[in-house]
C-alpha cells in the first residue's frame, strides 16, 4: 500500500512540475500577444504549494539523492516565487527548480518500480 501512495505522489509531482514548467516557458510569450493577459504570481504560488505538499509526502521514504534533488529544487522555486511576490523581481531559478522537480520525481518513481 505504501508503494501505491508514494507512486501517486510521484505522479502528482511529475504532473504538477511539468505543467508548471510549461506555464513558466509559454506564458511569457502569451503576454506579448494583445490578448489582455497579465502574469499573476499567485499561480506560481499555487504550483509551488502543490509541489511542496507532494515532496513532503515523498522525502520521508526516498533515498538521499532524490530527497536532495527535491529539496533543492523546491527551494529554488520558492526563492523565485517569493522574490517575485515580495520584491517584484523575476528570477530564472524557477526553470531550474521545475526541471529538478521533474527529475527528482522521475528518479523516485523509477526506484519504487524496481
UniProtKB/TrEMBL annotation:
GO cellular component, one term: membrane
Membrane-spanning residues: 12-36, 42-59, 64-87, 93-109
Matching InterPro entries: Mercury-R_MerC
Keyword terms: Membrane, Transmembrane, Transmembrane helix
Taxonomic superkingdom: Bacteria
Signal peptide start-end: none
Example GO molecular function: mercury ion transmembrane transporter activity
Name of the protein: MerC mercury resistance protein
Organism: Flavobacterium hibernum
